[in-house]
């Protein structure tokens, strides 16, 4: 059955791989972007998830053209890395407002129609950094850890209405960002990963599609690590 899927930040990287996986699955897929436009074949809507009015307008447009959002993938995020003592208030607030509060905004907006339809799947894309921390990323780690509490609280509130809220926590993934690593940095990261390789975006997408499917209807409030064993035990 084709369902309406929204992937925030679905115009590149992990988000794009997730959007393509749902598209291949036969779903109606919308992605948000901040002005870059949508990749070929995908329905795109401009949205700034730090702006409640922009979020509401984006959802209204999707609902008009594709129908109510039944599957929400909260993927959009930013980084502003620096050490704790050097991090400004603005750097901390920008990351938390986008990664955590932005996810809360889209979840809140999607939930009303999910409740009305008595069905909903929410998947929040977190990070292994949110589970084990990382030097220079106090803002990012806090925002990604917060997604776990967000998803589990939604589970407590909406789980009886056939709505699930789960978290996927990727490790290091082959994206444009990791392509900029030096050979020494890549070697250092690989030494910490039991699988001895970085993930492909499609591997994150596969876990996300599974959690949104009928076969995962009894999985709720879970954190699924896709990190090659990097964060095991968390």
TrEMBL record:
Classification via SUPFAM superfamilies: NAD(P)-binding Rossmann-fold domains (SSF51735)
Domain of life: Bacteria
UniProt name for this protein: 3-oxoacyl-ACP reductase FabG
Keyword Mitochondrion: no
Top-level enzyme category: oxidoreductase
Domain Ketoreductase: 3-176
GO MF annotations in UniProt: 3-oxoacyl-[acyl-carrier-protein] reductase (NADPH) activity
A Pfam match: adh_short_C2
EC assignment: 1.1.1.100
Species the sequence originates in: Salininema proteolyticum
InterPro entries with a match to the protein in the record: KR_dom (IPR057326), NAD(P)-bd_dom_sf (IPR036291), SDR_fam (IPR002347)
């Amino acid at each position: 059955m084709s369902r309406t899927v929204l992937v925030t930040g679905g115009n590149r990287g992990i988000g794009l791989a997730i959007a393509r996986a749902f598209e291949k699955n036969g779903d109606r897929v919308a992605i948000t972007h901040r002005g870059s436009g949508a990749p070929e074949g995908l329905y795109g809507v401009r949205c700034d998830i730090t702006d409640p009015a922009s979020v509401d307008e984006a959802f209204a447009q999707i609902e008009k053209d594709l129908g109510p959002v039944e599957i929400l993938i909260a993927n959009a995020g930013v980084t502003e890395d620096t050490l704790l003592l050097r991090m400004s208030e603005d750097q901390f607030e920008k990351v938390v407002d986008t990664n955590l509060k932005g996810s809360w905004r889209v979840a809140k907006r999607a939930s009303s129609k999910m409740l009305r339809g008595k069905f909903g799947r929410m998947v929040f894309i977190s990070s292994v950094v949110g589970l084990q921390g990382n030097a220079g990323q106090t803002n990012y780690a806090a925002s990604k850890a917060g997604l776990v509490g967000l998803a589990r609280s939604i589970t407590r509130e909406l789980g009886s209405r056939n709505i699930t809220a789960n978290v996927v926590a990727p490790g290091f993934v082959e994206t444009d960002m990791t392509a900029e690593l030096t050979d020494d940095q890549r070697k250092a990261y690989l030494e910490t990963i039991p699988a001895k390789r970085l993930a492909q975006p499609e591997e994150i997408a596969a876990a996300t599609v599974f959690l949104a499917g009928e076969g995962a209807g009894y999985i709720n409030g879970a954190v699924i690590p896709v990190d090659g064993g990097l964060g095991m035990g968390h």
